[in-house]
Amino acid sequence: MLLLAWITLNDLVDDWGRLEGGWENLTAFVTESMWPPNWSVLEAQSYPVCEKDIEFFCSVGYLGMVETIKIAFVSTILGFIGALCLSSFAARNLMPMYIALPFRIILAATRSLPSLIWAILFVIVIGLGPLAGVLAMTFYTIGYLGKLQYETFEGMSSDALEVSKAMGLSHTTTFTSVVIPETGNHLLSQLMFMFEYNVRHGTVIGIVGAGGIGYYIDLYMRFLQYDKVLALLIIIFVVVVVIDLMSLMVRSFVTDEGDVRRPTWLRAMIKLYRSRNSSSE
Amino acid sequence: MEQDNALLVLENLSIGYDAVLASEINARVHPGEVIAVLGPSGIGKTTLVRTIAGLVEPIDGNVELKVEKRGGLGYIPQKLGLVRHASVYHNVNLGARASLPVLKGESEERKKRVNSALVALGIEEKTTEPVRRLSGGQLRRVATARALAQRPSLLLADEFLSELDHNTVDVVITAVKELLDAGTSIIMVEHHEENVTLLATRVWMIHGEKLYDFSIDEWKTIQTGHLPGGEEE
Questions:
Q1: Domains plus CATH for chain A?
Q2: Is residue B94 one of the residues assigned to a domain?
Q3: Hey, are the CB atoms on A169 and B83 less than 8 Å from each other?
Q4: Based on the structure, what is the number of domains in chain B?
Q5: Which residues contact A157 (CB under 8 A, 6 or more apart)?
Q6: Do B80 and A159 touch (CB under 8 A)?
Q7: What ipTM did this prediction achieve?
Q8: CA–CA separation, A156 vs B66, rounded Å?
């Protein structure tokens, strides 16, 4: 497979000479234009005048990131619920194929447009701003999560489903009382992943005017202020890592491993501190 | 006139997946009967039960099930089919919800059924426990409690007494007898002869791609060593 990939790559690249000097170009760009990151993005903007006690809350980094997180949160929740409704009809083990197929086609159609195109469409329809971003990411989330969800449902153990079918439970009862509890861990994982994805993509759709931190990234790129762009990218990275840690914690409530009580971060730190003290004595 | 009140009628039924496991099955189940399905491993006992449950299409023939579409049929598969990430109460309540749907109200009756099933199986202290934390014997008790709360007209139970200690078998048998008193019929796949004599009123023996239907007394006679068709065991 690796050989096949290499042959394909070789077919795609017409001139390997382009790589020459690439590393030097990148180094020059990072050291001269991007590094060090400009943390003035965490200071209050000159306009509008900051009325808060702490300047940070009026900064571009904070305001942009909070708006991106808000857009990502709302669209993830709305998209998750929409995707659940559609995917419960798209899973072949829950519905006959003649019903599942149209729902799969709807989800595929929703997914085939990237969130950026959705954003452009909604900016055209309702104008610039966060609402366009929310709608764009909600639609993309429905298509993307819907596929993950129906594949998860199809992969679940058939025993409990067969019992539900034999007992004559309704589709709604089977879905809410059997399928969701059995796949809860995966659904939560997907939900958190999608939230993280939407936070990252919030930056992209912001570039086309759909609000969030992407608007400021686009603005600084236009003015060639790459050091500020780097600072905003680091902020996004930190938020993504925090979301990943939150995902780990949330999922521990529904996994088998969650039955075992794990030490909190604080306890782990105290233990480490005590062990160091005792060794130094 | 027996066929008038039959809960289940099997007519010229052929069962199997790719290949036929048993064919020309003609049998009936009447209210209050307990049928033990016997035969060596891989002969088609589970396939027969799954075909009756509507989970496997018959290769040929008909399965006529004359029970209520919702909640009329109970099913305890070999792997029990419990919702592992939900509580014991949630699982038992599913049985009650099958025959008493939430939309129709009757929440008090549902609670009563669930609580009495939990007590009958001796798992009332495990109510909030997630099923995944229970032992094998406790899991079988939960699956039986689910059937008890459902009170189906016909219960299909696939080896639900296997791998249980004597104490648990006694508890489960007592609970199943409650179901029988309430008018439920049972088709149970069994391997252990002692369990057959505890409950069964009739025996379906699958042998050589055929199903033989015996009364319990006839089956006891067969135990002397002669199989139907004159073959030696």
A1: 55-252 (1.10.3720.10)
A2: no
A3: no
A4: 1
A5: A182, B79
A6: yes
A7: 0.88
A8: 31
Mean pLDDT of A237-262: 72
Q: Tell me the CATH number at B180.
A: 3.40.50.300
Whether A162 sits inside 8 A of B55 (CB atoms) is yes
Cα torsion A212, A214, A215, A216: sign: positive
- Which residues of A are less than 8 Å from B76 in CB distance? 163
pTM of the model: 0.78
Of A166, A181, A256, the CB nearest to B86: A181
Is the CB of A177 less than 8 angstroms away from the CB of B84? no
DSSP 8-state code for residue B2 = G
Q: A184 contacts in B (CB within 8 Å)?
A: 85
Contact B54 A168 (CB under 8 A): no
Which positions in chain A touch B74 (Cβ < 8 Å)? 166-167
Tell me whether residue B102 is in a domain: no
Each residue's pLDDT tens digit in chain B (233 positions)? 444 689 999 999 999 998 889 999 999 999 989 999 998 888 899 999 999 999 999 999 999 999 988 889 999 999 999 999 899 999 999 999 998 877 777 788 899 999 999 999 999 999 999 999 998 889 999 999 999 999 999 999 998 887 788 888 888 888 888 889 888 999 999 877 777 888 899 999 998 889 999 988 888 887 766 555 544 44
Alpha helix (H) residue ranges in chain A: 2-12, 22-29, 60-90, 97-112, 115-126, 130-155, 158-167, 171-174, 180-207, 213-222, 226-251, 265-280
Pairwise CB contact (< 8 Å): B75 & A256 = no
**B146 occurs within a structural domain:** no
Q: What is the mean pLDDT of chain A?
A: 84
Chain A, chain B: beta-carbon pairs less than 8 Å apart: 81
Residue B14 to residue A195: CA distance in whole angstroms:
52
